[in-house]
Amino acid sequence: MRYTLLLVLALAACSRGSTGAHPPLAGGTNGPDAVFIRLAGNGGTARAYRWGSDSVLWSSSQRVPMLSHTLAFDDAQGSLAYVDARGVPGRLDLRMGSAGAAATTALTGLASADGWAIYGLTPKHDVSRLTPSGTWTFTPEQQPRGLLPLPDGSLVLLTDIGNRHELRRLHPPEPHVTETTSVPHADLLVRTDLGDRLYFVGDSGLAGVRTRDLTRTRTVWLPGQAVDAVATPSGDRIFVALKGKKSITVVDRFTEEIDRTIDIAGTATALRMDPDGRYLLARSADGDSVRIVAIGASRAIGTVRSRWRADLPLLGPDGGLAVLQDSDVVIVGVESHRERTRFLAGATDMWTLIRWNGFRPRARGLDVPVSFGSDPDAPAGAAADSTRAAPQPAAPSAARAPEPAPRAAEPVPPPRAIIGAPQHGTFTLSFAALLSEDRAKTLAASITVDGHPVRVVPGVSDRTPVYRVVYGPFDTKEEAERAGRRTGLPYWVYEGAP
Prior knowledge:
By secondary structure, the protein is mostly beta strands. The strands form ten sheets. The protein has a five-stranded antiparallel β-sheet. It has a four-stranded antiparallel β-sheet with strand order 4-3-2-33, with no helix packed on it. It is globular, with a radius of gyration of 28 Å. It starts with a strand and ends with a strand. The relative contact order is 0.10.
């Protein structure tokens, strides 16, 4: 993930980025799936595709506004943080298919490391952290030039002081600066995906900072003016494009020296790193082609035709490269350059690639209740296990009538297998369990079941208040399942009253 300091004032552009029964997505069955998200350029329905396939895997149930850029993806909550065309941050919930603003007004300097916490500057230059559970505000002593959230949850404030940048670190929600340092003025800022290093590239060279304690590393002198720089996912090497040079300079993080140069037979004006660290993309000075560098071999392996935008081109896990060609988005082989998939009229939309298992089919066994066979050693007429029927709460009254004694003449039959048979009782259809009551009410207002509204039921989970969006009750689990399928939304069914 990288930023240019000239853009940090206005934004921090970070991108990584119906659930039927589908086979596993690209990326393997053990790791996260690769999902290609398509966001309508003028606003509208968002769609998801298996990486490498042009068949729609998922569509949003609500309209997504016209976007400026995406920030980051929260794989735990399944939500994509974005900034709309007005500068208002928001989230696209891939589980529910809903999209909503995360703030009431536009913010500047928006940035996010994990998609859960979104940071921005208010019109009064206060720092605001927006999370699904609430908003935190901090008033700094000096107006920050940029906000640098880190994967560990901390936040670095970047401030200009003369010809240097001052870095101050916070650990929200604690309103205290824990570490400070300064670096020479820089034009470029590079951060590793792990978040353990920040590199500032300017006239003085490449100056590094350890984010753990904001200690400085040795400054590496560069033989020219840097126009762009990126780091490998592990952060072991930094690739720098120098003005007027037909090569890429490679800096070794551990020796803190220039390790080598890679000839690319042309000048580069921008760089982009493969999220898996296999290839480096370099934008040609003419702007209509992209040079591809194999990082393992340290050599240029070809050129592909494509325009260069903030979202494209990008690389997938199977060696596919999504490029912009005329009015379409095309996935080609990164080495063969042969076309694999084409998305017609895709160039007018915004794209991002996320890694997430949330679209995998739900295992059938998860919805089959556990049944226990009878104990062969139990005496005849023994009562069934008490877990099969939960005791009903007593009615609120001053005194309880004595319970009648069981009739010994009617022994209780042993438990029978219930798989495949209709389950009778009380069942509830649930669509979400949220920490915010307002968000739960907003979501509930957008859902109907057979034309009837759903409701929000407060509860407690692990001593934390939660708000469930539910509908019911139903007499059988099958009725609840059928009603859930008719909505076309993700859902689950649990036994009990709402």
